[in-house]
Specification:
71% helix; 164 residues; membrane; mainly alpha; MFS_trans_sf; transmembrane helix; MFS transporter
Length: 164
């Protein structure tokens, strides 16, 4: 289904819509965690649909960008692209837990061991809700800003758009 959408409308548009699905799902999860438990599963499903597109389509766009040759000098930039991509992804995976730990600390989260049970203050519960929903949604929205410069969808022939 995602490949068909990317073929008809472009990979960038598919990625943007996938990100919008994630954003909407995360906001719905924020609402669900406020006491609307019936909404948790549908919200998680919406996040999952968006997440799947946000994982698949960038890889297809990556292949297009790496094979694009604007200078006509037959330069192979796949190593540069994959290195920057991997470094950025690793940085995000490393900073995410640290960022969430800071949010929990600011919220007053109280850690415990397996032997004890601790009642979390309301501020810690808010920090958990925000850290799992609204703040990641804001980061997803922020990630769309650099994509405004992506123009390869319009340069590729329709048959090439689905490859990758």
């Amino acid at each position: 289904m995602r490949a068909r959408y990317a073929h008809r409308r472009g990979k960038l548009r598919g990625w943007v819509w996938s990100s919008v699905f994630m954003l909407v799902g995360m906001v719905l999860l924020f609402v669900a965690l406020a006491g609307q438990q019936w909404l948790v599963y549908p919200a998680a499903a919406v996040v999952g649909v968006g997440y799947s597109g946000a994982q698949i389509l960038p890889m297809a766009m990556f292949a297009d960008a790496a094979s694009h040759n604007p200078t006509g000098r037959n330069e192979n930039r796949i190593g540069l692209f994959s290195g920057v991509w991997t470094a950025a992804e690793t940085l995000g995976l490393a900073l995410g837990p640290a960022f969430f730990a800071i949010i929990l600390a600011v919220g007053g989260y109280v850690s415990s061991t397996a032997d004890e049970s601790v009642e979390q203050p309301g501020s810690a519960r808010w920090a958990i809700r925000l850290g799992f929903t609204i703040l990641p949604a804001a980061l997803v929205a922020l990630s769309l800003v650099p994509l405004r410069g992506y123009r390869l969808d319009s340069r590729l022939a329709p048959r090439e758009t689905i490859a990758g």
